[in-house]
Amino acid sequence: MQIGFFPIGMGLTAEPEVIALIARTVEQTGFHCLWAPEHVVLVDQYVSKLPYTTDGRLPMPPTFDFLDPFTALSFAAAHTKTIRLSTGICLVPEHNPVVLAKEVASVDKLSGGRFDFGIGIGWLAEEARAVGVPWERRGERALEYIKAMKLLWTEENPEFQGEFCSFSPVRSYPKPVQKPYPPIIVGGESGPALKRAGEIGDGWYGMNVTPEEVKTKIARIRQYAQEAGRDPEKFHFTVSPGLTVPLTLDLIKQYRDAGAHQIALHWFPDDRKAVAGKIEQFAETFVVPAARL
Questions:
Q1: Does the pTM of the predicted model rise above 0.70?
Q2: Which of 40, 179, 186, 194 is the most buried (most CB within 10 A)?
């Protein structure tokens, strides 16, 4: 059983020396993956509901630092050699897919093929409007963007004609180190998100889910994958109990039995002097025993 670390790139973990410290320490102590979230902008007033808190509100002020996740992960890549690096998650509909394909390939190249492309469609409608993207049909937009990006990653002179994006034959280099492209990890717990995971993903990231829910959702993803003619046994499943549920070794065992491969451990440090020691403590408590499961 693998343990990932979330997050880098927000709050105190947006500081360069803290990113470097976290990246080196989680690698040295055996964590599997380092996750970086994304918000392009936050707003003071919003009616959108965050699905991971009881009141639907973000647990931080809108002035909270949020680094671009690709920049944060590239910086972490320069301080590590083996740990996986993942967006957790990239808000695909808010990006130009041609530019996004280049960012993904660049991080994969700079990290030596260690990048996992965690994707989602977002929950904050006010953010999407701020970057000029319609909130409606964002799921369909994301699917089309991924289809276009796969061509940019794999073909020498791709072209694409779609509803949401189009481009004539172009050259997009570098290509990703990982072939045919970095693993696509689909985030989200709704029915459409699970369907996207099964149809286009290589894995799933479920947040704020119980072991019982994980078992059910993994079964649905496998079914969607099989219906799409894909091998459901090749998926990698990452889950998190959420922001308020304490992680225990017994809970890790329950997630393992439900079919998960990785637990994303959430910790938001507020004292940089305590960062290395706390991560080492997490490793002793969770990473080492989980590796034996």
A1: yes
A2: 186
